[in-house]
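Escalation from tier 1.

The customer reports that the assembly of two entities below gives different structure tokens on two consecutive runs. Tier 1 could not reproduce it. I'm attaching the input and our single run for tier 2 to review.
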Amino acid sequence: MFAVRNALRLSSRLSIPAVTRRGCAGAAIPVDDVVNGLTDEQIQLRQTVRKFFVEKLAPHADEIDKKNEFPGMRGFWKEMGTMGLLGITAPVECGGTGLGYLDHIIVMEELSRVSAAVALSYGAHSNLCVNQLVRHANEKQKEKYMTKLLTGEHVGALAMSEPNAGSDVVSMKLRAKKEGDYYVLNGNKFWITNGPDADVLIVYAKTDPEAYQKGITAFIVEKGTPGFSTAQKLDKLGMRGSNTCELIFEDCKIPAENILGPLNKGVYVMMSGLDLERLVLASGPIGIMQAVLDAAIPYLHVREAFGQKIGHFQLMQGKMADMYTRLSACRQYLYSVARACDKGHFSAKDCAGVILYCAENATQVALDGIQCLGGNGYINDYPLGRFLRDAKLYEIGAGTSEVRRLIIGRAFNSLFK
Amino acid sequence: MSGRVLVGVKRVIDYAVKIRVKPDNTGVVTDGVKHSMNPFCEIAVEEAVKLKEKKLIKEVVAVSCGPQQSQETIRTALAMGADRGIHVDVSGKDYENLGPLQVSKILAALAKQEDAQLILLGKQAIDDDCNQTGQMTAALLDWPQGTFASEVSLEGDKINLVREIDGGLEHIKINTPAVITADLRLNTPRYATLPNIMDSLMNNETELHKPNHRTSLCVGLIPLFETVAPEDMQGGTDRSGAMLRHTVLQSGKPKRIILSCLCI
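Tier 1 run:
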């Protein structure tokens, strides 16, 4: 039995992630999908994508983080396209897979479990860009842009934040002035995931600065349009490998036919999109928490101190229990809200609540993970440091924890007006 | 050659799982442990689907013998491109006693029933490492067999096969119908795409068969005495040149080398 199993492990088709090679007994902590309430299709989906990501991406995850780049990104995008992963929520008529938000979340969770940075880029492409096009693009725009985004030939992105407008995104200054059949864009965007690589970007600009939030419009911008350029790749604390940069617009002419959704109604496009963005991106921290468990729990059963495996000490048992229950609670909240969205029931309060809760717990679980490994958790030979740095982003991106709390608080205020 | 190919797929403990022996030494722990399709069976399914894509065969039927959960394995085969599935329901005590002889009898009966032209199996399963089912099935059907295949090509109603054997590669030509068992380097199995997974689950093309007296399962053919984990590895003695060369380099003085076989 062991001879063939070992031969399989070493055969060229299979690659083992660095952590298991290091001797952390066993592969991963299993996910109980019966408790999660997943259907047979979703269980099969998780198994298939997990296998794909472990074999194709896991061997490169550490290097992607160290070098802050993903050289194989384009090839990987095309492979994901072939598998139907880039347009999970896009209808079959457009070339998508026609599944729901929970299915999208399962895929992103497994991707985040292997590499949170690549998962973030994937989320920006498949949800922020593709899903917005699915919801708001007209037939002509869908025909022009969807196919290549779904096959992975093109990378998508979304740009709303600016150097001086993050949480207060509605105060954005990127100006779009109408000139005949074109709109001329002037200004910049900042913190744009996939910025350096994207071929198609959805950009929010002010078409009517006087009208404040009622003067924002969404545009579809193509890479290579004269006047549109990208500046330096940002050197981030975490999510290294998910390229982020500044976008610069200098008298950039965008045809009027590239307006996404109604003119000056961009804020509705943006805000409703943000709810779904928060829902899908919440699977990022779930994947990270699962990865922390995958790395820390086997270690606790290998490392010895005082004559026994440290996983048998009560305080370590307590840590495992705390990490596991946080993850499980977050997961059930996320899956429940996703199921509701799949039924057509969208709750802004819960979408904000889900990512608020998941992100803050992920940071805590990642800290616990480092603590479980002790000194080894503090060196970069082990991935726990990467998990913490990646987890922290989710408390900031897609609306900071503060903004998310505002949304929920205000939702309750409005019940008692 | 056109027609039907039967592909046997076995549900086994996933290759990456750390195997644990049950405390009472009656077997290994399988409850709650991740299972998946035997890797050599995946290679067999891939080969069958490839033959169908080349239009050399008409239909790929995935067969699995086991309890209810074997249906997951069949679904994986369907998602990879198989057309139909047959689940032979074997559970409880019968399943514990299910071995290559019983499975080959089932496959032989199914081959006759389905009028199969070709049976594709993995060369062995990674749980029992028997490497018997393919050979036994061929013997029961009195069909030629091409085992450890690393290359398969159809030529009219004959099959050209390259087999990986201890001495190297053996090229043989066999008649159809035949049994082929897949070795590691035959192909690289594809990942099931999402649309295929959804399709395979919606069109549940799996028939349920209960084995009858024709395919009778002999109870307890091979009595199992005990299952134990292998002993922990001890340090070995290095009689190869490696350590000796290391010592020579360190001390600068050559030593007399007595050549003997490697101790690993």
